[in-house]
Structure formats: C-alpha cells, structure tokens
C-alpha cells in the first residue's frame, strides 16, 4: 500500500499544482476561489495571481492594489456560491485601516477550467466592481492640516504652508557656487563649500540644500530653474506664521499638532488613474469619512512677549537666553535664545549652569524658614569669610560691616549667605529648592526640560559653596524661571506649554510658607530699588536678584538676572557674561515694553 500511495501523491502534486489535490474528491471551482481569497488575505499578490488564468496581469493589479492601500491595512475575504452556479462566487471584501475604519464591499468572480484544474478568471472587477484596467486603489488619511497652532490669545503661531525644497544633483556639483549665490540672501551659511560638504557626508545622488517659504521662493524661482542640476519640489510644512518668531519652545509643537490631527482624521478610498495624462488623478471615490472638527492647538506662549524676548537677547553677542513664565497659570510665555545660544542647542530648557547669587533666594528662604534670621536681623557682611579652610569673598571684597539681612540680600553679600548656609542642615537647600521647583522633574508635553540639581551638602565647605549658587548646584534658565514663578504664585507651579496637555511631575506642588514669600518679594524689590539692579528702577513693580557664577577655571563667570514683574516671572542668562550687568540690561530691554504693553 505504501509503495503505491507515494507515487499517486507525487502525481497529484504535479497535475494540480497550487489549487490542491485530494485523494477523496476532484478539484472544484470553489477550491480556486478559496485559494484566491486566502492569498489575498495574506497580502501575497504572487500567490493570488497564480490562481488566476492571467497570472501576469493579475499579479500586477493586485500588487498595485496593496501598494495603494494603507501599509498596515488588513484584508479578510469570505467566499460564497450564488445560486446553483458553482462556477461563480461572491467575494466579500473587508478592509480594516484601524480605529474603526472599515471598508466592506462584494465582488463577483467566475472560474474557468484548464484540464482538470480550475482557475479564477481574471478581470479587474474581481477586486472591485468599479475597478477598470488603467485604475488602481488609493487610500488616504483625510486630516485637518489647516488646523493652526495658536498663542494664548488665539493668534496664529504655526500654520500649514507651502514651501519649496531646493535640491541639487551630484552630477552638477559644479553648480554649487551659482546656487549658493542665489540662496545667500536667505541663509548666509550656504556656500559652495557647504554644499560640497553635504555631498561628502552622503552617498545620495541628490541633496536638499534649503527649504524656502513660498514668498521667498517666488523671488528666486526663475533663477533657480536656470541652474543646471537644480530642482524645486513644492510640499507642505508647519511653519511659524510670523517668520520672525523662533523659540526652542516651538520645536516640539509639531509632534503635538500631528497627534491632534491624526486623532481627528477621516479617511477615503479612491480609484485613481495609472496611465495617460491623468495619471494619479481620482476617477471614482469608493468610500469616504470626513475628519472630525479639530480645534486649534492653543499654547501658553504670547507672541508679543516672545518677539520682545527675541529682540532683547539678539542685542547681546554672547550666548544669551531668556525664559518667561506666568506665575498665575504656570504657562510658559516666552523662551528666546540668540544665535550664539542656539548653536549650543535648546539650552533655555536643558542647559545646566551654576546659578550664582540668584540662588541666594533659596538660601535666604531656607534661613527664614529655619528661624535663623528675619529681614531686619543684623548680619555681618565682611569682605571675606572663611569656613573649613574655604574662603568666600564678596565681589571685589566689599565690606558693609553689619547690616540688616534685607540689605545683605539686596547688595548680594556672599559672606552673609555663606555664614547662614553653614548653619543649615545638609538637606535644607535641596528641600527648599524643590518647593520652588528646582530639582523637580517635570514632563511638559512638547518640551524636554531639566530644572536643575541641588544635592545635599555634607561638609561646611560644601554648604557655603552651594549657599551662594556655586559648588554642586546647577539650574537651567527654565528651572530658575520656574522658581521665580513659584515664588510669585506662593507654591510650586506646574509649568505648561499647551492648553489641555497636562504636565506631570515627580513631586507634588507644595505651598511656600507665606511669610517667606512676603519677605523674599520685598527683599527682591529692594534689590531693584537700591541694590545690585538699580538700573531697572523704572520697571514698575519689579523685584529680582542678580547673580554671577564662576565656571571652568574660575577666570570667567556667567551672568544672571531673575525676578518677577506683575504676572511675568523670568530668568535671563548671559553665558560668559562675567558680570550680571549684561543679563540685567537684556532683562530691562524685555521688561520695559512687556510691562508697559
């Protein structure tokens, strides 16, 4: 029995190929229909085509269908035999594109016999009753791409715009000079050498040299078309509505915008032409679900304040940053970096720097809470003080003698703060800093942020170093602005960027003791009235704290100024500013029109 069975099975396989063979029944048209449906469900165009009587044409059409549908689409097909005609079947197609996006329809197929075998007779209508030769399927997500991103007042911040992508081919690299000459007006970093460097960094035959806004492209498009090897492709992009607006706070908004329009997206399946002058044009819409209403993505940014901040930092040649936050809401109002700062990355939110004397706000708050002093308590402010062999000097070793704590704060006495810090427990500064938001890990949708780091100080020398914002203490401009906003709010704020996208934190918001808040706010106002920031006396209601912080080999310092004016809390950093004066000047250039407006 075994010797006879094996040759029979081999013969069966040779005769009936892919349609199958049974020892118990002859092949039938339904075998062909089922094999066709099964192959389509697996997205195996070659196998499906092989079951038809025109394998080449069927495989090409089925491949085109799968390519035109969403890449993650799934297909299930059921077959049924209509009436008594077993040579005809109904194919029930059920496409799924996820998220309750389903496209169902039926198509009729017939079978033809070739010897003892059965094949599905190929016709485009087997895939869809409306499909004709020269057509294929196209799935599209229908999204509200015109949905804007706005500032807090509803003014457009980012909008969908047409841009021109300017490309150059490797074959015409000798055109790089001419291309750079045309593009220099838009980006002076584009040179023949920079274009050549782009090609050196890749094996691609074509590189994108620049992307131009539509109005810029219009001024040079004719020139570009005359340069050999240059092509311009128009496409859409989400850009700032005002070309002058730039902020590291904007960069992450693209992802949130994309998420919003994806969640409300509709979809459609269309038949499009595959040949002739109308190639790619729709011929028949098979299914369509319009997108749901997508409200604008509203941010907490204020375009007016953002532009003022940008103008202020642009006046300084050294890397300069300004971050402003609303104490009442925690909303980020502005974040500006000049070109020198932006070359170092988004340092407004993720840069870590010693805060210098601006950290005396935290040290003073800890001393007030511990009962070590009050604003009127007489405190020594000698030119230098030595703690555990660590000598702390005032700037130029100025000596005020004995003065109230409020005066020592306003005049920025390092020696006074060092002596107070030495009396605090090792964890006093970290605990107080977290009340102000420094050291808290905030997850702000649309941003990557750090606030800073304030470790325990286990030795007297470390206490005094940390107490004046040196040692192991670091903050970001964002973190220091959070601290000022928390002081203005009276408790740890929760910074936000996009309305409806809540921020999370690894530490819950806690109140700052009311007497501490009141005393600090008054001492900060005194700093402006007759302390180290008197050049800003004309800014109504302003209170602040200056700071310089040595770094590297201690031959240079960063300059800081941070404070509160009305509902604007801010921190300004001039990297390598050497004194606080540049930061104070930048802050004033921002605050005067900001508060007046």
Write the layout of secondary structure elements.
Blueprint: H1 2-16, H2 29-41, H3 45-50, H4 55-68, E1 74-80, E2 88-96, E3 102-114, E4 117-120, E5 135-142, E6 149-150, E7 156-169, H5 176-183, H6 192-200, E8 206-213, H7 214-225, E9 230-240, H8 253-263, E10 266-273, E11 282-289, E12 297-298, H9 303-314, E13 320-325, E14 332-337, H10 339-342, H11 347-350, H12 360-369, E15 378-381, E16 384-387, E17 390-393, E18 401-404, H13 405-410, H14 414-422, H15 428-435, E19 442-443, E20 452-453, H16 460-467, E21 474-475, H17 477-489, E22 504-505, H18 514-530, E23 543-551, E24 556-565, E25 568-574, H19 581-596
Describe this structure in words.
The protein has 3 domains: 132 residues, NTF2-like, domain 1 (Nuclear Transport Factor 2, Chain: A, Roll), CATH 3.10.450; 123 residues, no CATH class; 221 residues, DD-peptidase/beta-lactamase superfamily (Beta-lactamase, 3-Layer(aba) Sandwich). Helix content is 33%, strand content 26%. The protein is elongated. The relative contact order is 0.09. The termini are far apart. By secondary structure, the chain is an alpha+beta fold. Strand 16 and strand 17 form a beta hairpin. It contains 19 helices and 25 strands. The strands form 8 sheets. Strands 6, 7, 8, 9 and 12 form a 5-stranded mixed sheet that branches. The protein has a 5-stranded antiparallel sheet with strand order 14-13-25-24-23, with helices on both faces. The N terminus is likely disordered.
């Amino acid at each position: 029995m075994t010797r006879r069975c094996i040759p029979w099975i081999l013969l069966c396989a040779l005769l009936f190929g892919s349609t199958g063979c049974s020892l118990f029944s002859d092949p039938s048209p339904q075998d062909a229909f089922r094999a066709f449906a099964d192959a389509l469900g697996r997205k195996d165009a070659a196998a499906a085509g092989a079951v038809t009587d025109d394998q080449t044409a069927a495989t090409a059409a089925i491949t085109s269908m799968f390519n035109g549908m969403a890449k993650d689409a799934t297909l299930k097909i059921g077959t049924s035999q209509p009436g008594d005609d077993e040579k005809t079947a109904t194919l029930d197609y059920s496409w799924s594109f996820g998220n309750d996006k389903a496209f169902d329809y039926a198509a009729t197929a017939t079978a033809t016999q070739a010897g003892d075998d059965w094949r599905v007779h190929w016709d485009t209508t087997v895939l869809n009753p409306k499909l004709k030769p020269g057509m294929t399927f196209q799935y599209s997500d229908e999204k509200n791409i015109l949905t804007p991103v706005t500032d807090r007042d509803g003014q457009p911040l980012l909008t969908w715009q047409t841009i021109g992508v300017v490309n150059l081919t490797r074959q015409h690299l000798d055109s790089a000079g001419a291309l750079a000459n045309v593009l220099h007006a838009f980006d002076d970093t584009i040179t023949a050498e920079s274009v050549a460097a782009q090609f050196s960094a890749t094996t691609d035959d074509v590189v994108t040299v620049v992307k131009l806004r539509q109005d810029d492209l219009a001024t040079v498009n004719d020139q570009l078309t005359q340069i050999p090897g240059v092509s311009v492709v128009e496409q859409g992009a989400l850009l700032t509505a005002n070309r002058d607006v730039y902020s590291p706070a904007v960069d992450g908004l693209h992802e949130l915008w994309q998420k919003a329009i994806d969640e409300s997206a509709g979809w459609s399946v269309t038949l499009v032409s595959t040949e002739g002058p109308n190639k790619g044009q729709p011929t028949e819409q098979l299914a369509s679900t319009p997108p749901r209403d997508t409200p604008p993505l509203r941010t907490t940014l204020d375009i007016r304040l953002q532009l003022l901040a940008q103008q202020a930092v642009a006046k300084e040649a050294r890397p300069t940053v300004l971050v402003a936050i609303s104490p009442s809401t925690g909303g980020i109002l502005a974040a500006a970096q000049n070109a020198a700062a932006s070359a170092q990355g988004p340092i407004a939110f993720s840069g870590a720097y010693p805060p210098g004397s601006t950290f005396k706000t935290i040290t003073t708050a800890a001393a007030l809470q511990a009962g070590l002093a009050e604003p009127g308590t007489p405190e020594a402010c000698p030119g230098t003080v030595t703690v555990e062999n660590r000598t702390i000097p005032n700037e130029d070793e100025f000596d005020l003698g004995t003065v109230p704590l409020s005066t020592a704060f306003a005049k920025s006495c390092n020696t006074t703060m060092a002596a107070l810090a030495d009396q605090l427990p090792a964890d006093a500064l970290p605990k107080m800093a977290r009340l102000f938001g420094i050291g808290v890990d905030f997850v702000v949708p649309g941003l990557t942020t750090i606030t800073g780091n304030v470790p325990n100080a286990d030795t007297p020398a470390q206490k005094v170093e940390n107490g004046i914002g040196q040692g192991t203490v670091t903050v970001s401009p964002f973190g220091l602005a959070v601290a000022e906003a928390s002081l203005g709010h009276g408790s740890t704020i929760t910074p936000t960027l996009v309305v409806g996208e809540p921020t999370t934190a690894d530490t819950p918001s806690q109140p700052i003791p009311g007497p501490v808040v009141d005393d600090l706010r008054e001492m900060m106002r005194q700093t402006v009235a007759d302390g180290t920031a008197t050049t800003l006396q004309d800014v109504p209601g302003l209170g602040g704290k200056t700071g310089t912080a040595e770094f590297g080999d201690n031959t240079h310092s960063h300059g800081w100024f941070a404070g509160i004016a009305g509902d604007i809390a801010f921190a300004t950093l001039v990297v390598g500013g050497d004194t606080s004066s540049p930061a104070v000047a930048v802050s004033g250039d921002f605050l005067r029109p900001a508060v007046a407006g």
